[in-house]
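Repro:
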Amino acid sequence: MKLSRFFKPLGPVLITLIWTAASSAQASTIYSWTDENGVVHFTDQPQTPDATAYPLSVTEVSGNIEQTADTIATQAADVAVVKEPAKTITTVSLVSPMHEQTIRNNEGIINIHAVTNSKLNNQTQAQLVLDGVVKGDPQTELTWTLDNVDRGSHQLQIQLVKGGKVIASSDSITVYLHRATVKANKPKPVQPR
């Protein structure tokens, strides 16, 4: 029996199979260029002579797709998700006086109130900063009364401290204290006769 008679009709089929296998295994190329407006383009054919070629390798996927999906699902089930509780960011804010508020008080008294989302105790305390200087000792209350403050503008800020370290600070605000005189005398109490 002549083999050429057997292979002759298979010739075009064999050529097609070989060409398909070769083209699927070869790498593809994409081209990139930038136009006059600065827009970057990507295509499978070079559109300009200065287009940059980027070879892409094609990876053959073999095996049963359902089996691969089952393997991925099994691996995902084995991964333990550990959720940590969200950490609260400690904040402190001045409630009064307000930023750029004018306070009129001849005795130089400024009452200060603040709020925080943290519980104050012996470890976490609040301190008042007036014009960059800490006033008094740290405390567990969020109210302060300053007296005999000089007239003019002053910077106020509240800091939360824990173990001697500042863990939170309020925004610094400016207040303006107006006094009739610098040497305001307190009224003397009336003496009974």
